[in-house]
Design goal:
The complex is a heterodimer of chains A (about 110) and B (about 110). Chain A has no helices and 11 strands. Chain A is an all-beta fold and about 110 residues long. In chain A, the strands form 2 sheets. In chain A, strands 2, 4, 5, 9, 10 and 11 form a 6-stranded mixed beta sheet that branches. The radius of gyration of chain A is 13 Å and the shape is globular. The N and C termini of chain A lie far apart (about 35 Å). Chain B is mostly beta strands and about 110 residues long. Chain B contains no helices and 11 strands. The chains are: A mainly beta (about 110), B mainly beta (about 110). At the A-B interface, strand 5 and strand 10 of A face strand 4, strand 5 and strand 10 of B.
């Protein structure tokens, strides 16, 4: 059983469309991170959110941390084929990160 | 390039065998983490070392062990291998807790 549940598991959209990926947990985290992983590579950190209710923007990506610090969302505006990858959320407590199973995003040209 | 180096990139071995995976962390990073990634389990935390000492343990089997050496490189030893151990094994390093830099992984196939 995953400590963090990500949904949807798979997402396939056309270039230019918007998408949202969700990360939910019953546990409270001191911070939450989002990573993107491409085939043959390790995950790469996109952002860390720390404060409940925090919203961070990274170009076309918007990350939100829930008020209770239990959930988060990632919204991509006008998705591009380069956004294709496995998106992983990770809850941070003490020295350990707990990862969700990930959402595989495919953006078709 | 994350600065974390893992070798080998691929490993194919038979059931019952033992293998060693190696990780060189980013320069200056004292913490090393090992993760296992499989299709059905996602990214599972195995173990963390900080400056040569074990700091945290996750879902690591008794057949698996790890260590971090004085030069801060780390090795993950997997023994009595089973088919279900086939997975991607990632090493990550960090200088502060929570911000991880991952290597490109070792793909282990047990036949």
């Amino acid at each position: 059983t995953q400590l963090l549940e990500q949904s949807p598991q798979f997402l396939s959209i056309q270039e230019g469309e918007n998408l949202t990926v969700y990360c939910n947990s019953s546990s409270v985290f001191s911070s939450l991170q989002w990573y993107r992983q491409e085939p043959g590579e390790g995950p790469v950190l996109l952002v860390t959110v720390v404060t409940g209710g925090e919203v961070k923007k990274l170009k076309r990506l918007t990350f939100q941390f829930g008020d209770a610090r239990k959930d988060s969302s990632l919204h991509i505006t006008a998705a591009q084929p380069g956004d294709t990858g496995l998106y992983l959320c990770a809850g941070v407590n003490d020295y350990k990160l707990s990862f969700g199973a990930g959402t595989t995003v495919t953006v078709r040209a | 390039d994350s600065g974390v180096t893992q070798t080998p990139k691929h490993l194919i071995t038979a059931t019952g065998q033992r293998v060693t995976l190696r990780c060189s962390p980013r320069s200056g990073d004292l913490s090393v983490y090992w993760y296992q990634q499989s299709l059905d389990q996602g990214l599972q935390f195995l173990i963390q070392y900080y400056n040569g000492e074990e700091r945290a343990k996750g879902n690591i089997l008794e057949r698996f062990s790890a260590q971090q050496f004085p030069d801060l490189h780390s090795e993950l030893n997997l023994s009595s291998l089973e088919l279900g151990d086939s997975a991607l094994y990632f090493c990550a390093s960090s200088v502060d807790k929570g911000r991880l830099h991952f290597g490109n992984g070792t793909r282990l196939t047990v036949t």
